[in-house]
Write the structure tokens for this entry.
Amino acid sequence: GAGVSQSPRYKVAKRGQDVALRCDPISGHVSLFWYQQALGQGPEFLTYFQNEAQLDKSGLPSDRFFAERPEGSVSTLKIQRTQQEDSAVYLCASSLRGWDTQYFGPGTRLTVL
Amino acid sequence: GENVEQHPSTLSVQEGDSAVIKCTYSDSASNYFPWYKQELGKGPQLIIDIRSNVGEKKDQRIAVTLNKTAKHFSLHITETQPEDSAVYFCAPKKPKPFGNEKLTFGTGTRLTIIP
């Protein structure tokens, strides 16, 4: 079956532009997570959804970061007024329920020039 | 929060030899101990996990051992193959109500298998 998919795979933005990153979780998975992975580092938690409810957004680094999952399936991570420090790989993961195994997508590599 | 460290940060082994990666954590409440493998251009993938009521678990060429007293657990890969080359992460987790659903990854170990 299909795994977690993310689009685009690569995104180059000029500083100050807004970007939107999409995640399609595994069908039927209730929980969805976003992580940020800087070069040479481990992934770091950004935010978590259970269905359409955003239960934890403690990892979002600033109010320029916004995530939504309006119908409890596809999720979008939006970054406004991108900065160079936002350059990273953004990973999406889904799980059947919150405490089950998380399955990761391939990530979106964002480069801010 | 949880302090998670891995050693070594890089490891090179000859094909066919064994590799061991150690993960040290700080929170004694942790009770779930997974290892993830991340290949270039891909997301992390769970390869093996262990719970605190078990000391060792094996799955073909990989195994995980746990020392709860010393607060560390290790990944063992035997008969290494070129496809084992990747970055490996541990992500110890606490149960409810002490923890939550998110994963806290270790610092990572880059394993290179030399043909």
In short: Residues 10 and 110 of chain B are 5 Å apart (CA to CA). The beta strands of chain B are 4-7, 10-14, 19-25, 32-38, 45-51, 56-59, 62-67, 72-77, 86-90, 109-114.
